[in-house]
Amino acid sequence: EKGGWSSFMAKEVAEEPEAVANTILGRVKDGQVVIPELDGMDELFAGVQRIIIVACGTASYAGQVGKYAIEQWARIPVDVELAHEFRYRDPIVGPETLVVSISQSGETMDTLMAVKEAARLGAKTLSICNTQGATIPRESDAIVYTHAGPEVAVASTKAFVAQITALYLLALHVGRIRGTVSPAEAARSIHELEALPEKIRWILENEQEHIEQLAHWMADTRSVLFLGRHVGFPIALEGALKLKELSYIHAEGFAAGELKHGPIALIEPGQPVFVMVPSPRGAATLHAKVVSNIEEIRARGARVIAIAEEGDVAVLPFADEVLRIPLAGPIFEPILAVVPLHIFAMGLANAKGLDVDQPRNLAKSVTVE
Ligand code: M6R
């Protein structure tokens, strides 16, 4: 039920705070992450040597964000692969590999087949899924459900933030078992994680109108680029995918560091570019590098829309628009930075009079290969 909202997507974006909060619920005990569904798996987590994340579309971008958290806190090397690519390349997988699948529907055929292939090769499989009792979790050795609630709109939004949340919880859970994250750091991280729902709410209350207005002004835009670095890179990819699928315009996401290796040639006067600005509280060089990317594209006439933390004044001289997100620190920023991009893609599709819940040519779950 849309319950008064203009679309399921509008309702689901508004539910992003609860999606994060409900995914954390019941998984924090005495200042530590404890995932009851993973009881009895400590030995496996202690011994695992490699994690491969398999997923498609938006879920694969959640996986790319999760890679940073798992490597940081659990110190296990992570590869993220599109499920359809994994399956057809004779992957090197064995009992020391944990294959983590991510799927909102739990019915995506490509992801299901990748999970089956991983199991056939002797890997343990863990499913991060939003749909209770779906096929992928049933075929997996372990399940961590995201509790985003049913997602109806074809474009995945609240499931995406819940998937990242689940990956952070998994990273902290495994890090505790392996002793790779100190209790103090875990407690600090949990505190940050628990603060996210309120911060998403802040964006919805304070920036939504501004972003919708911007989308309205940009209704005739033919192409939009997205730049990000570190955890901001998969968010740039997600911003581009949302815009393609909802408003049928050319959109592409790049790693900001790649600019001078090719994409900067695309910049001509008036080209809109969204830039995810890393938290200035993280690695200073990362922030400075992205600010200098902004200067470079601005000098070539790009119209820069910066997504930046509140109080980050370094971007002001070069950005045409600044979309503010609350302070969250480097690793947590993606869950906030993606919210304006969801609102923007929805706003642009609305401005063009398109059906945001059911874009052309797409299905909510892709149950064919
Ligand atoms: O149900 P799944 O999470 O397995 O779906 C994966 C993709 O098909 C899905 O995320 C798709 O990319 C969305 N339409 C993106 O908004």
Structure characteristics:
alpha/beta, 5-stranded parallel β-sheet, 45% helix, 17% strand, globular, binds 5-amino-5-deoxy-1-O-phosphono-D-mannitol, transferase
- Structural class of the helix and strand makeup? alpha/beta
Number of helices: 13
* Radius of gyration from CA coordinates: 20 Å
H/E series: HHEEHEHEHEHEHEHHHEHEEHEEH
Q: Judging from the principal axes of the Cα atoms, what is the shape?
A: globular
What is the number of E strands?
A: 12
Oligomer: single chain
Largest sheet: 5 strands, parallel
Mean pLDDT: 95
Percent of sequence in beta strands: 15-25%
**Distance between termini?**
30 Å
- Helix-residue proportion: 40-55%
Side-by-side strand order of the widest sheet: 4-3-5-6-7
List of distinct ligands in this structure: 5-amino-5-deoxy-1-O-phosphono-D-mannitol
**Which residues form runs of ≥5 with pLDDT under 50?**
none
GO molecular function: carbohydrate derivative binding; glutamine-fructose-6-phosphate transaminase (isomerizing) activity
EC number: 2.6.1.16
Organism: Microbacterium sediminis
Protein name: Glutamine--fructose-6-phosphate aminotransferase [isomerizing]
Question: How is this structure best described in words?
Answer:
It catalyses: D-fructose 6-phosphate + L-glutamine = D-glucosamine 6-phosphate + L-glutamate. Its main location: cytoplasm. The active site is at residue 364. One of its GO terms (biological process) is protein N-linked glycosylation. The protein is of the alpha/beta class. It has 13 helices and 12 strands. The chain has helices at residues 8-14, 16-24, 42-47, 57-73, 83-87, 109-120, 135-138, 158-178, 183-206, 208-217, 232-247, 284-299, 333-351; strands at residues 28-29, 32-33, 50-55, 78-82, 97-103, 124-129, 142-145, 223-228, 250-255, 272-276, 303-309, 321-325. Strands 4-3-5-6-7 form a 5-stranded parallel sheet, with helices on both faces. Strands 9-8-10-11-12 form a 5-stranded parallel sheet, with helices on both faces. Helix 11 links the parallel strand 8 (223-228) and strand 9. It is globular, with a radius of gyration of 20 Å. Bound molecules: 5-amino-5-deoxy-1-O-phosphono-D-mannitol.
